[in-house]
Amino acid sequence: MKDADWFRDPCPQPSKTHxxxxxxxxxxxxxxxxxxxxxxxxxVRLAGLQGTDRPKAENVAIVLFAGDHGITAQGVSPYPSDxxxxxxxxxxxxxxxxxxxxxxxxASLEVVDAGxxxxxxxxxxxxxxxxxxxxxxxxxxxxxxxxxxxxxAAGRRAVERAANAKPDVLVLGEMGIGNTTSAAAITASLLDxxxxxxxxxxxxxxxxxxxxxxxxxxDALQLHGLTGALADPLAVLQAVGGLEIAALAGAMIAAxxxxxxxxxxxxxxxxxxxxxxxxxxxxxxxxxxxxxxFERGHQIVLQAxxxxxxxxxxxxLGEGSGAAVAVPLLRLACALHAxxxxxxxxxxxxxx
Length: 352
Ligand SMILES: O=C(O)c1ccc[n+]([C@@H]2O[C@H](COP(=O)([O-])O)[C@@H](O)[C@H]2O)c1
Ligand SMILES: Cc1cc2nc[nH]c2cc1C
Known about the structure:
Blueprint: H1 16-28, H2 37-50, E1 60-67, H3 82-93, H4 97-104, E2 108-115, E3 126-127, H5 145-163, E4 169-175, H6 179-191, H7 207-223, H8 233-240, H9 243-257, E5 262-264, H10 267-279, E6 287-289, H11 298-304, H12 321-339, H13 343-346
Parallel strand pairs: 1-2, 1-4, 2-3, 4-5, 5-6
Helix pairs in contact: 1-2, 2-12, 5-9, 6-7, 6-8, 6-10, 9-10, 10-11
């Protein structure tokens, strides 16, 4: 198959020329240099990513990938898997947090069923899945190599659809009961850390539940031979990943290849980002990390990616909600960059 390795194709670099132009403009604006802190850095980064002197974050596409997880049979989540499919209905009916945020932001919202237990004909949802739910990775691989390839490509297909509207930024989110267990297993394996250092409460496990969750992951990593040596990211995804997590990784690589900046959400999306960056390191440049989630392992994954998130609001919802909440910051950074007067225009003196 000609395109089987599409995710290894190069990702372009951000435009140095536009970054330098934006940097020079920031220095000329009526403020002490650097005084708008991270907002300045954001405008400069977006200028480089969008290849323009006037970066924007007006046209926002939100894509949310859903998947179910066989590992829930081990009691790793306080909620039943049914909630994933029920929430798909809520996204479409407009009652979920991300539905509200997408309306407030005038953003498009596409919900992709990348592997939930739902039937194939859910109205309002794009069904693009190789199977319903993953295998229970405490006993078997989460998915086959062919299913992994399908899920990665489902991420790319979603980016191709989103790209038609030429979005300024792409917000990526997820929904999947059990997916913090999968994300923690991926992270522990790729970073070669004991699962207890990563595992958190997810949707609300108590301390005893968290201990069992960590032990379940530690046993599974042994079973699949994923401890110790530098793990192959595709092998890790196949053994302990999720279909929505694989789709997210594919979407991030495809977005980078298509020069679309991505706003990364919380713990699960960041675990997908770590995987994507291990598969194709150049995609990292295209990822903007929106927030630090309250989920225990998130800071560790962010550190591994050398990422400084924009916000820390103790969010732990998922659905792309943290990334959506960061969009107004991007908009304000761009408005300041475009709209402030220069020292010369405003006849304001520079430093003595
Ligand atoms: O985004 C996060 O950081 C985050 C942290 C904890 C939980 N979640 C959400 O909660 C669900 C997974 O929780 P769990 O306990 O079932 O693994 C899934 O639908 C995620 O979107 C999301
Ligand atoms: C109700 C509910 C909504 C969610 N949205 C994302 N993850 C979630 C988990 C639960 C349990």
